[in-house]
Amino acid sequence: MARGADVAVVVLGDRAGLFGRGTSGEGSDAGTLALPGAQQHLLDTLLDLGTPVVTVLLAGRPYALGRAVAESAAIVQSFFPGEEGTHAIAGVLSGRVTPSGRLPVGVPRGPGSQPATYLGARLAHAGTASSVDPTPAFAFGHGLSYTRFDWTDLTVRAQEAPTDGEFAFSFTVRNTGERSGTEVVQLYLRDPVASVVQPVQRLVGYTRVALEPGETRRLSVTVPADVASFTGRDGRRIVEPGELEVRVAASSADPRLTARLVLTGAERHVDHTRRLHATIVEEPPTP
Q1: Which H helix or E strand runs over 95?
Q2: Are 134 and 112 in contact (CB under 8 A)?
Q3: Which residues pair with 75 in a beta bridge?
Q4: Those residues with Cβ within 8 angstroms of residue 207's Cβ, 6 or more apart along the chain or in another chain
């Protein structure tokens, strides 16, 4: 049937259940991140036919997909979507809905990988410290659409700020495709030098921007210095002076624009009243 079809839609994943009665659920652990049972064999057999394969995953965890990462015509990751999930998936597959979801986890490249996070220090990423490359097949924050977006015209309005201040910059997002769609703008903070080792980057803000074909939107970003705080060596949360980077990105692996910033002044202690998130505001359109 697949050999004679225009497109093969293969739906794979888990059977929900508790304490070993399913392949995913409370007490239903997995010793490998390969697809359960013979599903990878089925998927590889379909890929061998030359028919375009759309892989749909109904799963409780991210699985390694082997060849399908590069050879599937498309991959739809829905996890366990609930009782209305079939309608949502049908809308995406038919083109009635332009997808705008983004991965809340990374999808592993190999079945022997441990569930990895983008939120790691430099030694937790690919490098010479280990022979194992933990780089995911699809990174945290990844997601495609039926249209395309360009990000341009970064303007940094406040490149320096005191440790109790804030930064401000703006940029433009444009829908360059032929369909309406929603882009998910993500902000990642990088602190290259700190008194305590920091993650290479961490998500500090995001927003969804709905655009018609050809439409442009200017976004204004405010990043409080508090967002750069971390637990210091004395156990108290601090903001340190020094250089920072804010990456405006489509995912943790796809930075589009980078604002290089500097915190000045003395080290400052912060408490539970600190500002926890950056803000992103759509500027009113220019007449």
Answers
A1: none
A2: no
A3: 55
A4: 184, 185, 219, 280
Q: For the chain, what is the radius of gyration of the CA atoms? A: 22
The two beta strands, 160-162 and 255-264, are parallel
Place of tokens 């759309």: 54
Asked if residue 156 lies in contact with residue 169, where contact means CB atoms within 8 angstroms, the answer is: yes
For 65, the token pair is 């997909």
Q: pLDDT tens digits for the chain (287 residues)? A: 999 999 999 999 999 999 999 999 999 999 899 999 999 999 999 999 999 999 999 999 999 999 999 999 999 999 999 999 999 999 999 999 999 999 999 999 989 876 578 998 888 888 888 888 889 999 999 999 999 999 999 999 988 999 999 999 999 999 999 999 999 999 999 999 999 999 999 999 999 999 999 999 999 999 999 999 999 999 999 999 999 999 999 999 999 999 999 999 999 999 999 999 999 999 887 65
Cα–Cα distance measured from residue 119 to residue 150, given in angstroms and rounded to the nearest whole number = 26
The CA distance from 64 to 112, in Å, is 9
- pTM, two decimals, is 0.93
How far apart are the C-alpha atoms of 133 and 271, rounded to whole Å?
37
> Looking only at Cα atoms, what is the longest distance across the chain?
70
